Amino acid sequence: NAGTEADVYISVYGERGDTGSRQLLRSQKLKKFLKGQTDIFAVEAVHLGHLYKVVIGHNGLGSGNGWFLDKVVIKDPITDLDYTFLCHRWLDQGQDDGNIARELTVTDASTFPGRQELELKREETWAAEKWKFQKGNMLQFYNRLTHGFICLSPDSRVDALGDKKNKYGKVFFHVDVC
Q1: Number of domains observed in the structure of the chain
Q2: Using DSSP, how many helices (H) and how many strands (E) does the chain show?
Q3: In a 3-state reduction of DSSP, which class is residue 11?
Q4: Range of the domain at 147
Q5: How far, in whole angstroms, is CA 166 from its chain's centroid?
Q6: CA dist 150 to 67, 139, 166, Å?
Q7: Could you tell me the pTM of the whole model?
Q8: Looking at the domain assignment, is residue 122 inside a domain?
């Protein structure tokens, strides 16, 4: 029951204006808005520049009109950019918060120009630090407040007694506890 037979409408907003409300009529699929299916529509509009939000919803008519929407992806044919708008919620009067329309903001890299550099830094940091989390390693944190160690063992046990001397001898992390 995650699909809908209701009429679905979308408004796309960009730096140069919006499309107004447009009904999504002809999918490339035989039957549209089925559970687990990706539908593709062509929407004619003037070029809106960089996109920042969409409003998508349905008219609530028809049997089984509730709809679970994962995301909307808009491909700009002029710039060849993809804009992703995550939803992962129900558009249903009887589910979630009862709304049958959602306002979604863009979540892709075109809005966050530094996102690719940030992702690269995250990957580099993880590559350098992941050895600490390999099977069999004991993680130790030094608590400056108690001047003792907190140990996380490979079997998921936590020794938080704060011993001032630790039989493993190595300190991997220092943390301040407030």
Answers
A1: 2
A2: 1, 11
A3: strand
A4: 134-174
A5: 41
A6: 48, 8, 9
A7: 0.58
A8: no
